[in-house]
Specification:
By secondary structure, the protein is mainly α. It has 16 helices and no strands. It has one domain. It starts with 5 loop residues before the first helix and ends with a helix.
Length: 403
Amino acid sequence: MGVGRPEDAARGVASPAARTSLREIAGLFLKLGTIAFGGPAAHIAMMEDEVVHRRRWLTREQFLDYLGATNLIPGPNSTELAIHIGHARAGWWGLLVAGTCFILPAALLVGAIAWAYVRFGTLPAVAGILYGVKPVVIAVVLQALWRLARTAVKDLRLAALGFGCLAATALGMNELLVLALGGLAAVFATLPSGSRGPAASAPAGLVLPRGAEFLPLGTGVAAGATALAVPFGLWPLFWVFAKIGAVLFGSGYVLLAFLRADLVQRLGWLTERQLLDAVAVGQVTPGPVFTTATFIGYVLGGTSGAAVATAGIFLPAFLFVAASGPLVPHLRRSRVVGAVLDGVNVASLALMALVTWQLTQTALVDAVALVLTVVSVVLLLRYRVNSAWLVLGGGLLGALLRY
């Protein structure tokens, strides 16, 4: 590892000219990808400890700049932060190595679990594990929703915007349009009252164009309707996940809304139950939640499907980081970009809230499952128990109850 000037190292300051070997970058992010349980916040905390305090690859200010940049582009925040760090320390090859090594351990583990799921998923013991895990997954999503909302909903205008996005989503509006209009409405709300034009009297919630409230979620299958099956193919699978990776803002849990709209409702490739099983596997494994795509790809198309889905959902993150890195200082100072991000974040939470409600109908099948969800919520919010331990505990309890 290049350490730059000795006086910089003595003060704990990373030199801009310092370089790190690809081997060191690969070793760090393979380690983090293997042990990084607990979601993006935990991943980011581990990275900060390693690259700022232990290795002094970045200053705290540099680290915060890259963290801020990940919140302004779509995709998995912790993965994008790893890619930024790799690029900062070893250029374009560092970008590829850091991102790939952070993703790879989780993708391999999820692929192995998917193989076992396809082969043994109908056995009573496995069914019991999933029976116990699903209510815990609902609790984990509720916890994330609560914590994200406390940060994202900064004032009454954003609260009203969030409720407007929730109503539009419930009416069946396309999820991408909800995100776009959420960002535009937030910018509109920051303009001086005299510059808003004839629509200035509209409420601070979601302002919809004529007829937009009737646009369909996904491609026209209303919630609860039966999807028309579309033949499966690897290229369509790749483009579904590439689209999701290119437009998904907010928490990785918002992924649920996109997966449900495309794979369950529009294409008919997955059932609601399979979708929740995939999310459960994403929770019990380390690394990015986006490796849920690996599980779904394997269930649909075996090893090739797993590789295609994984490549599709993560490819946009590499491209966005490569394109946005030089713009980071300008983006962080932009009032308009900040307002867009605020609106997109509350719209993402609206999507997340609605899909969580819909998935509870699959997960909470009896009183035991309901109690398990409530207990898990209390343990997560009150006692801050690691979600990975709860998922493992739920699986063990489910296996014991259903065996």
